[in-house]
Amino acid sequence: MAKKQADGDGLNIPNRITALPVRRVGPVVAAVIVVLLAAMLVQGLITNPKLDWPTVWKYLFNENVLEGIGYTLLLTVISMVVAIILSVILAIMRKSINPVLRGVSWFFIWFFRGTPVYTQLVFWGLFAVLIPKISLGVPFTSISFWSIDSDVVITAFNAAWIGLALNEAAYLSEIVRAGLEAVDPGQTEAAKALGMNRTLIMRRIILPQAMRIIIPPTGNETIGMLKTTSLVLAVPFTLELQFATNAIANRIYKPIPLLIVACFWYLLITSILMVVQSRLEKHFGKGFDARAMGTRGKQPPLPGKTDGEPKDDVNKLNEAAFNGLTA
Protein backbone atom coordinates (compact mmCIF):
# COMPACT_ATOMS: atom_id res chain seq x y z
CA MET A 1 0.00 0.00 0.00
CA ALA A 2 2.88 2.34 0.79
CA LYS A 3 4.25 1.84 -2.69
CA LYS A 4 0.87 2.57 -4.28
CA GLN A 5 0.47 5.78 -2.27
CA ALA A 6 3.98 6.82 -3.19
CA ASP A 7 3.14 6.29 -6.84
CA GLY A 8 -0.18 8.11 -6.50
CA ASP A 9 -2.32 5.03 -7.08
CA GLY A 10 -5.49 4.66 -5.04
CA LEU A 11 -5.71 8.41 -4.32
CA ASN A 12 -8.61 10.55 -5.44
CA ILE A 13 -6.75 12.99 -7.69
CA PRO A 14 -9.05 15.23 -9.77
CA ASN A 15 -8.43 15.52 -13.52
CA ARG A 16 -5.91 12.70 -13.43
CA ILE A 17 -4.00 12.31 -16.70
CA THR A 18 -3.65 8.74 -17.89
CA ALA A 19 -0.42 8.60 -19.90
CA LEU A 20 -0.24 6.08 -22.71
CA PRO A 21 3.03 4.63 -24.04
CA VAL A 22 4.27 6.21 -27.27
CA ARG A 23 3.72 3.97 -30.26
CA ARG A 24 6.96 3.60 -32.18
CA VAL A 25 6.09 2.61 -35.72
CA GLY A 26 9.54 3.24 -37.19
CA PRO A 27 11.33 0.18 -35.75
CA VAL A 28 8.48 -2.10 -36.83
CA VAL A 29 8.52 -0.75 -40.39
CA ALA A 30 12.32 -0.99 -40.54
CA ALA A 31 12.22 -4.59 -39.28
CA VAL A 32 9.65 -5.58 -41.90
CA ILE A 33 11.73 -4.01 -44.67
CA VAL A 34 14.91 -5.73 -43.49
CA VAL A 35 13.18 -9.11 -43.27
CA LEU A 36 11.78 -8.72 -46.79
CA LEU A 37 15.16 -7.74 -48.23
CA ALA A 38 16.85 -10.63 -46.41
CA ALA A 39 14.26 -13.08 -47.72
CA MET A 40 14.74 -11.78 -51.28
CA LEU A 41 18.52 -12.11 -50.93
CA VAL A 42 18.33 -15.68 -49.60
CA GLN A 43 15.81 -16.66 -52.28
CA GLY A 44 18.08 -15.24 -54.98
CA LEU A 45 21.14 -17.02 -53.65
CA ILE A 46 19.35 -20.35 -53.48
CA THR A 47 17.52 -20.26 -56.82
CA ASN A 48 20.18 -18.59 -59.02
CA PRO A 49 21.59 -21.38 -61.22
CA LYS A 50 24.71 -19.34 -62.05
CA LEU A 51 26.00 -19.81 -58.49
CA ASP A 52 26.15 -23.59 -59.02
CA TRP A 53 25.94 -24.68 -55.39
CA PRO A 54 26.72 -28.37 -56.11
CA THR A 55 30.14 -27.30 -57.40
CA VAL A 56 30.63 -25.11 -54.33
CA TRP A 57 29.98 -28.06 -51.98
CA LYS A 58 32.19 -30.29 -54.10
CA TYR A 59 35.29 -28.08 -53.80
CA LEU A 60 34.64 -26.53 -50.37
CA PHE A 61 36.89 -29.10 -48.68
CA ASN A 62 39.11 -29.87 -51.65
CA GLU A 63 42.66 -30.82 -50.62
CA ASN A 64 44.19 -28.00 -52.68
CA VAL A 65 41.83 -25.49 -51.09
CA LEU A 66 42.64 -26.74 -47.58
CA GLU A 67 46.36 -26.55 -48.37
CA GLY A 68 45.83 -22.99 -49.58
CA ILE A 69 44.09 -22.12 -46.29
CA GLY A 70 47.08 -23.48 -44.38
CA TYR A 71 49.58 -21.39 -46.36
CA THR A 72 47.35 -18.31 -46.05
CA LEU A 73 47.22 -18.66 -42.27
CA LEU A 74 50.95 -19.34 -42.10
CA LEU A 75 51.76 -16.23 -44.15
CA THR A 76 49.40 -14.16 -42.00
CA VAL A 77 50.84 -15.34 -38.69
CA ILE A 78 54.52 -15.03 -39.67
CA SER A 79 54.04 -11.65 -41.34
CA MET A 80 52.10 -10.19 -38.41
CA VAL A 81 54.51 -11.49 -35.75
CA VAL A 82 57.52 -10.03 -37.58
CA ALA A 83 55.62 -6.82 -38.33
CA ILE A 84 54.58 -6.34 -34.69
CA ILE A 85 58.16 -6.80 -33.47
CA LEU A 86 59.49 -4.38 -36.08
CA SER A 87 56.71 -1.86 -35.43
CA VAL A 88 57.49 -1.69 -31.70
CA ILE A 89 61.18 -1.15 -32.51
CA LEU A 90 60.36 1.54 -35.09
CA ALA A 91 57.93 3.31 -32.74
CA ILE A 92 60.53 3.38 -29.97
CA MET A 93 63.11 4.68 -32.46
CA ARG A 94 60.71 7.48 -33.46
CA LYS A 95 60.54 8.56 -29.81
CA SER A 96 64.28 8.18 -29.24
CA ILE A 97 66.49 11.13 -28.30
CA ASN A 98 69.01 9.91 -30.92
CA PRO A 99 68.39 11.83 -34.19
CA VAL A 100 69.98 9.02 -36.27
CA LEU A 101 67.49 6.47 -34.95
CA ARG A 102 64.61 8.88 -35.54
CA GLY A 103 65.79 9.48 -39.10
CA VAL A 104 66.13 5.77 -39.90
CA SER A 105 62.66 5.08 -38.51
CA TRP A 106 61.14 7.98 -40.44
CA PHE A 107 62.76 6.84 -43.73
CA PHE A 108 61.58 3.24 -43.29
CA ILE A 109 58.00 4.35 -42.63
CA TRP A 110 58.09 6.89 -45.47
CA PHE A 111 59.36 4.37 -48.02
CA PHE A 112 57.15 1.37 -47.21
CA ARG A 113 54.00 3.45 -46.72
CA GLY A 114 54.67 5.39 -49.91
CA THR A 115 54.90 2.42 -52.30
CA PRO A 116 52.18 -0.14 -53.08
CA VAL A 117 52.50 -3.53 -51.42
CA TYR A 118 52.08 -5.23 -54.83
CA THR A 119 55.09 -3.33 -56.18
CA GLN A 120 57.15 -4.28 -53.13
CA LEU A 121 56.25 -7.94 -53.55
CA VAL A 122 57.34 -7.81 -57.21
CA PHE A 123 60.73 -6.45 -56.14
CA TRP A 124 61.12 -9.16 -53.51
CA GLY A 125 60.30 -11.75 -56.18
CA LEU A 126 63.12 -10.29 -58.29
CA PHE A 127 65.57 -10.14 -55.37
CA ALA A 128 67.68 -13.01 -56.75
CA VAL A 129 67.92 -11.19 -60.08
CA LEU A 130 68.93 -7.89 -58.49
CA ILE A 131 71.34 -9.45 -55.96
CA PRO A 132 72.49 -12.90 -57.17
CA LYS A 133 74.67 -13.57 -54.10
CA ILE A 134 74.48 -12.63 -50.44
CA SER A 135 78.00 -12.32 -49.02
CA LEU A 136 79.95 -11.05 -46.03
CA GLY A 137 83.34 -9.46 -46.48
CA VAL A 138 85.25 -6.19 -46.59
CA PRO A 139 83.01 -3.37 -47.90
CA PHE A 140 83.90 -1.77 -51.27
CA THR A 141 86.31 -4.60 -52.10
CA SER A 142 86.09 -8.03 -53.70
CA ILE A 143 87.23 -9.74 -50.48
CA SER A 144 84.49 -12.11 -49.27
CA PHE A 145 84.51 -14.39 -46.24
CA TRP A 146 81.15 -16.07 -46.84
CA SER A 147 78.59 -16.08 -49.65
CA ILE A 148 75.44 -17.91 -50.68
CA ASP A 149 73.12 -17.78 -53.67
CA SER A 150 70.19 -15.46 -53.05
CA ASP A 151 67.61 -17.86 -54.50
CA VAL A 152 68.54 -20.37 -51.77
CA VAL A 153 67.69 -17.93 -48.98
CA ILE A 154 64.98 -15.77 -50.57
CA THR A 155 62.61 -18.47 -51.75
CA ALA A 156 59.12 -17.60 -52.97
CA PHE A 157 57.62 -18.25 -49.54
CA ASN A 158 60.30 -16.23 -47.73
CA ALA A 159 59.98 -13.38 -50.21
CA ALA A 160 56.22 -13.35 -49.68
CA TRP A 161 56.25 -13.04 -45.87
CA ILE A 162 59.22 -10.66 -45.83
CA GLY A 163 57.48 -8.31 -48.26
CA LEU A 164 54.21 -8.46 -46.33
CA ALA A 165 55.91 -8.02 -42.94
CA LEU A 166 58.01 -5.01 -43.92
CA ASN A 167 55.06 -3.23 -45.49
CA GLU A 168 52.81 -3.95 -42.49
CA ALA A 169 55.47 -2.85 -40.00
CA ALA A 170 55.42 0.66 -41.47
CA TYR A 171 51.69 0.99 -40.77
CA LEU A 172 51.73 -0.74 -37.38
CA SER A 173 54.57 1.46 -36.16
CA GLU A 174 52.32 4.52 -36.39
CA ILE A 175 49.60 2.66 -34.47
CA VAL A 176 52.10 1.70 -31.76
CA ARG A 177 53.46 5.26 -31.62
CA ALA A 178 49.93 6.63 -31.15
CA GLY A 179 49.35 4.15 -28.33
CA LEU A 180 52.61 5.08 -26.62
CA GLU A 181 51.88 8.79 -26.83
CA ALA A 182 48.41 8.25 -25.36
CA VAL A 183 49.88 7.13 -22.03
CA ASP A 184 50.02 9.92 -19.47
CA PRO A 185 53.58 11.34 -19.23
CA GLY A 186 53.13 11.34 -15.48
CA GLN A 187 53.47 7.55 -15.58
CA THR A 188 57.01 7.90 -16.94
CA GLU A 189 57.91 10.57 -14.43
CA ALA A 190 56.66 8.44 -11.56
CA ALA A 191 58.64 5.43 -12.82
CA LYS A 192 61.80 7.54 -13.12
CA ALA A 193 61.26 8.72 -9.56
CA LEU A 194 61.33 5.06 -8.50
CA GLY A 195 64.71 4.61 -10.22
CA MET A 196 63.53 2.61 -13.25
CA ASN A 197 65.55 2.91 -16.47
CA ARG A 198 64.01 3.75 -19.88
CA THR A 199 63.91 0.14 -21.09
CA LEU A 200 62.16 -1.10 -17.96
CA ILE A 201 59.72 1.82 -18.04
CA MET A 202 58.79 1.04 -21.63
CA ARG A 203 58.40 -2.70 -20.98
CA ARG A 204 56.61 -2.62 -17.61
CA ILE A 205 54.76 0.71 -17.53
CA ILE A 206 54.13 2.21 -20.98
CA LEU A 207 53.49 -0.78 -23.26
CA PRO A 208 50.96 -2.57 -21.00
CA GLN A 209 48.85 0.60 -20.81
CA ALA A 210 49.24 1.39 -24.50
CA MET A 211 47.96 -2.06 -25.50
CA ARG A 212 44.38 -0.94 -24.80
CA ILE A 213 44.69 1.53 -27.68
CA ILE A 214 46.95 -0.58 -29.90
CA ILE A 215 44.88 -3.79 -29.94
CA PRO A 216 41.76 -2.63 -31.92
CA PRO A 217 43.59 -1.21 -34.98
CA THR A 218 46.10 -4.07 -34.85
CA GLY A 219 43.19 -6.51 -35.06
CA ASN A 220 41.95 -4.66 -38.14
CA GLU A 221 45.42 -4.82 -39.67
CA THR A 222 45.58 -8.58 -39.00
CA ILE A 223 42.29 -9.10 -40.80
CA GLY A 224 43.59 -6.93 -43.62
CA MET A 225 46.78 -8.98 -43.75
CA LEU A 226 44.73 -12.16 -44.14
CA LYS A 227 43.22 -10.75 -47.32
CA THR A 228 46.45 -9.08 -48.51
CA THR A 229 48.04 -12.53 -48.77
CA SER A 230 46.08 -12.92 -52.01
CA LEU A 231 48.62 -10.49 -53.58
CA VAL A 232 51.62 -12.79 -53.09
CA LEU A 233 51.00 -13.99 -56.64
CA ALA A 234 53.28 -11.05 -57.53
CA VAL A 235 56.31 -12.84 -55.99
CA PRO A 236 55.13 -15.33 -57.38
CA PHE A 237 53.92 -17.61 -54.57
CA THR A 238 51.17 -19.91 -55.82
CA LEU A 239 50.05 -22.00 -52.86
CA GLU A 240 47.77 -19.61 -50.92
CA LEU A 241 43.98 -19.80 -50.89
CA GLN A 242 43.09 -17.32 -53.62
CA PHE A 243 45.47 -18.81 -56.16
CA ALA A 244 44.35 -22.36 -55.26
CA THR A 245 40.70 -21.54 -55.96
CA ASN A 246 41.60 -19.62 -59.13
CA ALA A 247 43.60 -22.59 -60.40
CA ILE A 248 40.61 -24.92 -59.93
CA ALA A 249 38.28 -22.38 -61.56
CA ASN A 250 40.53 -22.07 -64.61
CA ARG A 251 40.67 -25.83 -64.92
CA ILE A 252 36.89 -26.45 -64.77
CA TYR A 253 35.86 -23.10 -66.34
CA LYS A 254 33.61 -22.20 -63.39
CA PRO A 255 34.99 -19.08 -61.66
CA ILE A 256 31.87 -18.06 -59.69
CA PRO A 257 31.50 -21.23 -57.54
CA LEU A 258 35.19 -21.15 -56.66
CA LEU A 259 34.97 -17.47 -55.74
CA ILE A 260 32.18 -18.41 -53.33
CA VAL A 261 34.45 -21.10 -51.85
CA ALA A 262 37.21 -18.52 -51.28
CA CYS A 263 34.73 -16.02 -49.79
CA PHE A 264 33.38 -18.64 -47.40
CA TRP A 265 36.79 -19.49 -45.98
CA TYR A 266 37.91 -15.85 -45.76
CA LEU A 267 34.69 -14.96 -43.91
CA LEU A 268 35.06 -17.90 -41.52
CA ILE A 269 38.67 -17.07 -40.64
CA THR A 270 37.85 -13.36 -40.32
CA SER A 271 34.99 -14.15 -37.92
CA ILE A 272 37.33 -16.17 -35.70
CA LEU A 273 39.89 -13.36 -35.72
CA MET A 274 37.19 -10.86 -34.72
CA VAL A 275 36.27 -13.01 -31.71
CA VAL A 276 39.94 -13.22 -30.69
CA GLN A 277 40.28 -9.45 -31.10
CA SER A 278 37.24 -8.88 -28.89
CA ARG A 279 38.69 -11.09 -26.14
CA LEU A 280 42.02 -9.27 -26.29
CA GLU A 281 40.30 -5.90 -26.06
CA LYS A 282 38.44 -7.00 -22.93
CA HIS A 283 41.65 -8.35 -21.39
CA PHE A 284 43.72 -5.21 -21.94
CA GLY A 285 40.75 -2.94 -21.21
CA LYS A 286 40.39 -4.06 -17.61
CA GLY A 287 40.00 -1.08 -15.32
CA PHE A 288 38.88 1.21 -18.15
CA ASP A 289 35.27 0.05 -18.44
CA ALA A 290 32.65 2.81 -18.33
CA ARG A 291 30.73 3.00 -15.07
CA ALA A 292 27.31 4.52 -14.49
CA MET A 293 27.30 7.77 -12.55
CA GLY A 294 24.79 9.35 -10.21
CA THR A 295 22.23 7.80 -7.92
CA ARG A 296 21.96 4.62 -10.00
CA GLY A 297 25.68 4.07 -10.32
CA LYS A 298 27.38 0.98 -8.98
CA GLN A 299 28.48 2.56 -5.72
CA PRO A 300 28.79 1.06 -2.26
CA PRO A 301 26.00 2.19 0.09
CA LEU A 302 26.68 5.15 2.33
CA PRO A 303 26.75 4.64 6.12
CA GLY A 304 23.25 3.88 7.36
CA LYS A 305 22.08 2.73 3.89
CA THR A 306 21.39 -0.77 2.65
CA ASP A 307 21.85 -2.24 -0.81
CA GLY A 308 18.13 -1.92 -1.54
CA GLU A 309 17.97 1.84 -0.84
CA PRO A 310 18.94 4.59 -3.30
CA LYS A 311 22.53 5.76 -3.05
CA ASP A 312 23.00 9.50 -2.73
CA ASP A 313 24.80 11.30 -5.55
CA VAL A 314 28.21 12.51 -4.37
CA ASN A 315 27.94 15.65 -6.50
CA LYS A 316 24.57 16.52 -4.95
CA LEU A 317 25.97 15.94 -1.46
CA ASN A 318 28.88 18.26 -2.18
CA GLU A 319 26.54 20.87 -3.60
CA ALA A 320 24.26 20.68 -0.53
CA ALA A 321 27.22 20.97 1.82
CA PHE A 322 28.52 23.97 -0.09
CA ASN A 323 25.15 25.71 0.01
CA GLY A 324 24.86 24.99 3.73
CA LEU A 325 28.25 26.58 4.41
CA THR A 326 27.44 29.70 2.43
CA ALA A 327 23.96 30.13 3.93
Count of individual beta strands:
2
CATH architectural designation: Orthogonal Bundle
* CATH topology label: MetI-like fold
SSE class:
mainly alpha
Following the backbone from N to C, one meets helices and strands in this order, namely HHHHHHHEEHHHHHHH
How many independent structural domains?
Answer: 1
> Mind telling me the CATH class?
Mainly Alpha
Helix coverage percent: 55-70%
Strand content: under 5%
Q: How many helices?
A: 14
Keywords: Amino-acid transport, Cell membrane, Membrane, Transmembrane, Transmembrane helix, Transport
Pfam families: BPD_transp_1
GO cellular component, one term: ATP-binding cassette (ABC) transporter complex
Biased composition (Basic and acidic residues): 306-315
Index terms:
single chain, 327 residues, mainly alpha, MetI-like fold, two-stranded antiparallel sheet, 14 helices, 2 strands, 68% helix, flat, disordered N terminus, disordered C terminus
Q: Short summary of the structure?
A:
The protein is mainly α.
Polypeptide structure, described:
It is a multi-pass membrane protein. This protein has helices spanning 2-7, 25-47, 53-59, 63-94, 99-114, 117-125, 127-130, 150-153, 156-181, 185-193, 198-228, 241-252, 255-284, 314-326; strands spanning 133-137, 144-149. It has 327 residues and is mainly alpha-helical. A two-stranded antiparallel sheet has the order 1-2. Strand 1 (133-137) and strand 2 (144-149) form a beta hairpin. Helix 11 (198-228) runs antiparallel to helix 13 (255-284). The longest helix is centred in the first third of the chain and has 32 residues, at 63-94.
